[in-house]
Input
Amino acid sequence: MTETAASTKIAGDQVEVWWSSEQSPGDAGWFAGPMPNRYALEARPAIPLTKPAASSLATTILVTPAHHMQELLGIGTSLEETTIHNLARMSPDVRQRIIRELTNPEHGIGLNLMRITVGTSDFTAQPFYTYNDLPEGDTDFELARFTIQRDIDLGIVDTVKEVLAAAPDVRIFASPWSPPAWMKTNHSLKRGRLKEGDEYTQALARYYRMAIGAYAEQGIPIYAMTLQNEPLLETDYPSCHMPPERQKELAIALKAELAANGLATKLWIFDHNFEDAFAYVAPILNDAAGYAAVDGIALHDYDGSPSVMSELAAAYPDKPIYLTERSVWGTAGAARIAEYFRNYASSYNAWVTMLDSRIGTHQWLGTPGPTMFIQDADQPDRYWRTPEYDLLGQFARFLRPGAKRIMSTGGEQPSVTNVVFANPEGNLVATVINQTDEEQSFRLLCEGWQFTAALPAKTVGTYRWR
Output
C-alpha cells in the first residue's frame, strides 16, 4: 500500500520560509531614490518535512547536524562617523526607527555586532583626528592630553549608547586607522609607520587601553579591538603601515595593559585582506608570547580568496576568524557571505551603514556603492533601504550568537549555494542563494527527513526547521 503525502509528514513540523530578491545590485541609481523590488524578507507558505524519497531534482543539499564547525559571534555593520553624522541630522524618532530596523530581530534584521573606529577613518564628515593630537614637535608619552571629547561632541558616544539601549546584547568592537601623528615616522595621520622603539610601542598600547577605558566609563564595553585597520596600506587618509613583527610587540604590550587595568577586551590581529593573511598572521601566532596575546584573526575581502580562512582555521584552530569589513551587493554578495561562513568566519560586518543621496559625506578616495540605508540629503528625515538590508537580514534575522555552522554540501554552483547553522535553541537555519536568471528547485536531506523547494531567480531563501 502506497503511503499518502499526509502520512509522511512529521506531525507539527514544517519548514518556515522567507525570501529576499536583488534589484539593480550596486547601481548608483539607488542614490537617486528607492526602486521597487519583488521580495523583501517576505514570509512564504511553510513547506512540509517529509520522509526521504527518490528525487529527479538536479540539486540535493545534504545536511549533517552532528558535524559542526565554528561558532557564530554575530553579524553586523559599522557605526563609523559618516553614518553617525547622517543619523545626527535626523529627528530622534527617525533615528530610533533606523536603530530598531538594524538591531531588532522581530521588526528589523537583528544585527548584533557593530564596528566603531578609534578616532576617525576615511568615512567621516570631519577633519581627521585621534584622541591625542598635539602641536607638531610635541610628545606625550604619559598621554596626559588624551581625550575622547571629540567623539562625545560629534554624537558618536550618544549614538552607540542609543544602540545599546535598544539592543543590550549588541557587541561593539573597535578599529584604529592611525596612531596619533606624534607617534609616527612622518608626523601625519596619513601614511607613515609607528616610530621604532619600545617607548612608542608602549605609548600606543597605553593609548588603546585608555580608549577602551574611556568608552567603558561612558557605559560602552568594547568587546574586541583590532590593532590597526589594514596594516599593509599606506594611503592619503588615516593609515599606518605596521609589519607583523611590530604588531606582535603591540599585541603583547596591549594585553599586559588590559590585564593590569582589569579590562577584558579581546585582541584581533591583522584586519586586512585574504591575499596577505597567512604570511602576516603566521609570524605572530608561531611565537608563544604572540599566540598568548591574540584572541582572534580579523580579515577583509578586497583581495584574495576566502579559502585562506579555512587554512588559518586548520593551522590555528583555537583562534576564531572574523570578517570585519566588506560590503557586497545582490545575490552574488549573499553567496559571498555564505562563502565566508563556509570557510570558518565567525562573523560578518558590512562597512558603512548610511550615505546620503549625494553619496556623502566621506573622504575615501573612491566612489562608494549604495549602502543599506540612504538618506535624502535635502530632507534628512526621509530615507530608503536598499535590497542589501533585506539580503543581509536573510542571515542575521534568523541566526543567533552561539549558533554552530553544521556540515552541508554546497549544492550546485550553477543552481543554488548555501550555508546551514544550528541555533542554540535547537532549530536549524539554511540560507540558500539562487544567483541564476531562472527559478531553481532543490531537495534538502537531513537526519531522515527532507523537503523540496523552488527558489525564484536572483533570490535568497531562508529555511528554518526543527
